[in-house]
Amino acid sequence: MRSAPTPKPSTRRTDRHTSPAGSLRTAPLVGLDRVPWDEIQDSSGSAAAIPRLLDKVARGDADTARAALGDLRKRICQFGFVVEQATAATVPFLWELAQRPQVNCRAQIIQLLKNIADARQWETTATAYPKLLNHRENPVAWERAARQAVRARRDELERLMAEGDSEITRATTELARTLGD
Questions:
Q1: How far apart are CA 69 and CA 143, in angstroms?
Q2: How far is Cα 122 from Cα 26, in angstroms, rounded to an integer?
Q3: Chain segment 33-58, per-residue pLDDT in tens
Q4: What Å distances lie between residue 1 and 4, 5, 6, 8, CA to CA?
Q5: What is the pLDDT of residues 153-162, one digit of tens each?
Q6: What whole-number distance in Å separates Cα of residue 154 and Cα of residue 172?
Q7: What are the strands, taking DSSP E only, across the chain?
Q8: Spatial CB neighbours of 143, under 8 Å, sequence gap ≥ 6
Q9: Which residue of 79, 158, 165, 180 shows the fewest CB atoms closer than 10 Å?
Q10: Alpha-carbon distance 167 to 3, whole Å?
């Protein structure tokens, strides 16, 4: 007589409770696939890598998320003050990531939003060299659009301020000051 095969032991952890907040970790960023990333530019050329970097920030462990955010920073806010064409399109996803408790580098994301809100490199340059405004690709417009994208979601500052994390509170306070809120 044959016996029924013995099921293999599960490798799934049973000591963790799943919660609605935990499901945010694997939830995709809303609207990420609607942005024509391959048609817009970041500091390296095509912005096609930005969705992958945002996904690594969203889902990665602490080291992976920080490394991806560092690469993303170089692509959309180089040197902490030079924005690119893809910056404004990226900002809503940064706001979304800053709201997710599971994201490992939320304070750094908020600091990046502050850098973008502070950016005036192209406007300053255009004051000295007005011909910059006549270029087909207008970096002054990119800069303004990026700052406006940060401002558009400033109502989320209150929720971030209410969190108990002192690093997030400090970064949010600095962003609020920049935005004049």
A1: 20
A2: 37
A3: 999 999 998 988 899 999 999 999 99
A4: 10, 12, 15, 21
A5: 999 999 999 9
A6: 10
A7: 41-42, 45-46, 77-78, 82-83
A8: 83, 87, 119, 120, 121, 122, 123
A9: 180
A10: 58
